[in-house]
Amino acid sequence: MPTNVTDVDVLVIGGGVNGVGIAMDGAGRGLKVALCEMHDLASATSSNSSKLIHGGLRYLEHYEFALVKKALAEREVLLANAPHIMWPLRFRLPHQGALRPAWMLRLGLYLYDHLAKRSQLPSSHSVRFSTNSPLKSSFTKGFEYSDGWVDDARLVVLCAMAAQQHGAEIKPRTACISAQRTQGVWQVILENADTHTQQHYRAKVLINAAGPWASSVFDKVIEQAAPQQLRLVKGSHIVVPQLHSQPQAYILQHIDHRIVFVIPYEQHFSLIGTTDVDYQGDPAQVAISTDEIDYLCQVANDHFSQQISAKDVVWSYAGVRPLIEAGQAAGQQAQTASRDYRFTVDAPQGGAPLLSVFGGKLTTYRLLSEDAVNAISPYFAHISAPWTKDATLPGGDFSSQPALIAQLRQHYPWLNHSELQRWVRSYGRLCVEFLPKTQHSNHTKPGYQALGEHFGCGLYQAEVDYLMRQEWAYNANDILWRRTKLGLSFNEQQIARLQQYMQAKHTL
Fold first, then answer.
1. Residue 479 is part of which domain span?
2. Could you tell me if 18 and 159 are in contact, meaning their C-beta atoms sit under 8 angstroms apart?
């Protein structure tokens, strides 16, 4: 037995939204928590979503009323607790009678409006598309309803920050290479991805929240049979120059009975997705295929006047959704597989408990996390009550984005609106952590000089230093694609300079 061992109540494997949510919930309830993630936080499924907080309108077709009700209720909770990275979004659904009759859509939207209480979002209604519609002229009517937008990767980072504020130890770029039951506890070995140094932990409860890797954790780390098989489904998205300048998103029906979202993205782009393709292989190697790009372009072209092709794609990404396999009929299409979640708790007589998370969706991460900690609560006499339903995520303690922008403009009148808007939508009040402490009365050069080197596209040294110091950013990709989306605008020279700067900071 090594002499240097860290004792914790709970050790969580996996730094996606479910893992950090569990760490946040548990730490806030008085448990001593450590979390390890083999790569960057939100480096896999949790940063490759459709960026939506939604009930799942299409799940009603598969009679998943309980899941939709649960997700709709959570949508309201999340929008209230994170106004910087989440906000309401209206969706337009063009009607195609040959695919789904109008009465079916009206019924579905009625249920969507009434399955759970709404306090922030307006109800659905029918619409007529006028001559200024971005849709083809053949689409004359449809429906409009509400859901929510989320910056998925920042949601993960903010939950990790909240967990750390409550005492949790967050360890990205650290793999769990062994976990064995010994004398009523888990003996766990973690290994740093860069230095290959190992740390030993002793945990009362182990939580497997490894997402697409949840089953492989049993094979390679715990060395026992997985209690639940996962169905890995690839979902891919493309980003193109904006198809229209209107604020609404669109939900498009296709002849294969799938739906595709077209969502306003980062002011100048449109996000189009997603696909549902069964996936075999290492989730770390997932990538969009040419066929998927062509499919998404075709669905968009079937609906919008502005036509696109593969050459218009400025960025694409793919993620692997870990869906529950049990109970599915042979040959069942991927889009019909449940997005609900399930736990298994393995607690042999005299042995340390293991809780494993299977399935889930972004919108229900907080509820899943609360349920998971409730499931292990019998093993801790000192655990307190659930608390996250009314807990604002770090930086979210403000009334509205416009109000915070106006307040910051009073203190920093030399900053332009686009920079303030991006910072508020990413950090909320946390942006004061990297803004200069001294004030300047007008738009003067000393104000910007206080932010340090400008790497391009409004990214300054002060923000980079903050992200490295407080948000676990390690390399340029961490910042450009997860902490921000500035990778859409950076050129190769700017990326190289940012990476050079960050590497130099690591050597200090």
1. 401-507
2. no
